[in-house]
Amino acid sequence: MSTQPLTIAEILDQPALMRLWPAVGQALGLAESTTYQLAAEDRLPVEVIRLGRRKYVRTVDLQTFLRLRPEGHDNAAGVQPAAPVEQSAPTAK
To answer: Which helix (H) or strand (E) holds 8?
Structure first.
């Protein structure tokens, strides 16, 4: 059984978590058995998250690995990170 790799548009249109198979495997151009084998051996280029019996990958991690988004730009569109909170030293009384 051959599988078609996902297109860039399909990868960019994924929800926050992608199922290991078929989405991640197809995005990487891998067969189902190879995808699961690499995940079992912790050899995929992205972290695999297990929720119950299912395995997922953060979409932003896969997009970063595929260079579809610059590293450090995992914010939602239009959402700016909060400014750092300044800590002041306690004053003696």
So the answer is: helix 8-12
- Residue 27: closest CA among 42, 43, 14: 14
Backbone angles phi, psi at 4, to 5 degrees: -90, 130
Q: Which residues contact 3 (CB under 8 A, 6 or more apart)?
A: 22, 25, 26, 31, 32
Q: What is the mean pLDDT of residues 79-84?
A: 48
Instruction: Judge whether 61 and 26 are in contact, CB under 8 Å.
Output: no
pTM of the model: 0.69
Provide Rg for the chain, Cα atoms. 18
